[in-house]
C-alpha cells in the first residue's frame, strides 16, 4: 500500500494502472476510521482492481470552527487498518494541496441539498460537493462508495455527479451498527460513557417505529419517535422527517412514496448524531 500526499504523484500512479485497463474504486473519508468505513473499503477492494481511500478532513464542509478543530485525526492508525483491509493507495493530501486557492464554486443542487441537513448546516453540502468533485477529478474512479448513515449526502453527491456529468458509479452501502444498534460514527468517541449508554435509544426508537406502519399515520410515527427520544433529558431531537428516499421531499401519507425513509438528527448531550431508517 502506498501513502500519497501529492495529487500529481497519485495521478501518475493511477494513469499507469488505467493504461493497463485496471478499474479504480474510491472511498472518500475524513479518517478516524471505524468498521463502517472498513465495510466500504472491503466492497471497494472486492469490486475493483485498484482501491483508493482518501483521508482528508475537509475544512470547507464544516460550518462550526470548533467541530473542525476537534475532529479526530488518526492517520497512522487509519493507515494500519487500511493496509490490512487490502487498500492499494491512501490519498492523504494537505489542505494546501487540495485548496491552493480558495474554492469559490457555489453548487445549486436543488431541494436534496436544501432540506434537513442542508437547512441546519448552511454551506455544509456545498463543501462536500467541492471536495468530492475534486476527488473525482483527481482519481477519476469507476466506482465510489459512501455509507448510508449520511443518507442525504449520497443524494447530494448523486445530484452533483449528474449535474457535472462525472462518469462514476455511486454505491450506497448499508449502515454498520454496534451490537446495541448505535450507528457507527467517528463522533461516537466524543460521547461520555453515560451518554454512550443512552445513544442507542435513537436506533431502538427508529426500529420500534417501523412496527407501527402502516396502521399509524406518518405524523403519528414522527410524534412517537420525537417524544420517546426527547423523554430522555440528555437527548434532544433537532429534526425528524419521513421523506421520499429519492427526492427527500417530506411525505404526508405512506401512499406518497414506495421508498419512505426517516432521517433524524439528535443532540446527545453536546454530540450531534444522525441516523435513518427505511420504512419499506
Ligand atoms: O462522509 C464524509 O466523511 C465526508 O463528508 C466526505 C464524503 C469524505 C467528504 O469530505
Descriptive report:
By secondary structure, the chain is α/β, with parallel strands linked by helices. The strands form two sheets. The protein has a six-stranded parallel β-sheet, with helices on both faces. It has a three-stranded antiparallel β-sheet with strand order 7-8-9, covered by helices on one side. It is globular. It contains eleven helices and nine strands. Pantoate binds next to strand 2 and helix 7.
Strands, helices and their partners?
Layout lengths: L1 E3 L2 H13 L4 E6 L5 H13 L2 E6 L9 H6 L4 H11 L3 E3 L3 H4 L18 H4 L3 H16 L3 E5 L3 H14 L4 E5 L19 H6 L1 H11 L7 H13 L4 E10 L15 E9 L2 E8 L2
Parallel strand pairs: 1-4, 2-3, 2-5, 3-4, 5-6
Antiparallel strand pairs: 7-8, 8-9
The structure holds pantoate.
Pantoate binds next to β2 and α7.
User: Segments where pLDDT lies below 50 for 5+ residues?
Assistant: none
What is the CA–CA distance across the termini? 41 Å
One letter per element, helices H and strands E, the order comes to EHEHEHHEHHHEHEHHHEEE
The Rg value, from CA coordinates, equals 19 Å
Query: Strand-residue fraction?
Result: 15-25%
**Tally of extended strands?**
9
How many helix segments? 11
Residue share in helices?
A: 25-40%
* Structural class assignment: alpha/beta
Largest sheet: 6 strands, parallel
Small-molecule binders here are: pantoate
Provide the residue-averaged pLDDT: 98
